[in-house]
């Protein structure tokens, strides 16, 4: 079908180049010659060729993917290092300040009850016998 005088046409890159955008978005026919306007107020220019270049959408998506990858590495690596450090520390967990918690002996290790305090010990002992007076 033929395009009439001052008919417009939208320009798209081929489907196999979906990631590209054309430098000319819309062309207009004037007496059998294709023209486009670089700006709304500018003079029309003749379309000699249509160039398809990588679209800004692809650059934006690539930048987002790279930033997400960097963020994942930054978050993942410290966690991996922390888990590797805990493997070498043993069962104790780190407290604030990076110190291990105070350890207490296991309950099974204490076989005898603790000695009574000094006040109780004097109350339960018998006083020495008084010496006979002559």
Describe this structure as you would to a colleague:
With 134 residues, the chain is α+β, with helices and mostly antiparallel strands. The protein contains two helices and six strands, in the order E-E-E-E-E-E-H-H. The strands form two sheets. Strands 1-3-4-5 form a four-stranded antiparallel beta sheet, with no helix packed on it. The chain has a two-stranded antiparallel sheet with strand order 2-6. Strand 3 (26-30) and strand 4 (33-36) form a beta hairpin. The longest helix is centred in the middle third of the chain and has 34 residues, at 56-89. The protein is rod-shaped, with a radius of gyration of 44 Å. It starts with 7 loop residues before the first strand and ends in a 10-residue tail after the last helix. The relative contact order is 0.08. The model has no long low-confidence stretch (mean pLDDT 74).
Topology at a glance:
Layout lengths: L7 E3 L9 E3 L3 E5 L2 E4 L8 E2 L5 E3 L1 H34 L28 H7 L10
Antiparallel strand pairs: 1-3, 2-6, 3-4, 4-5
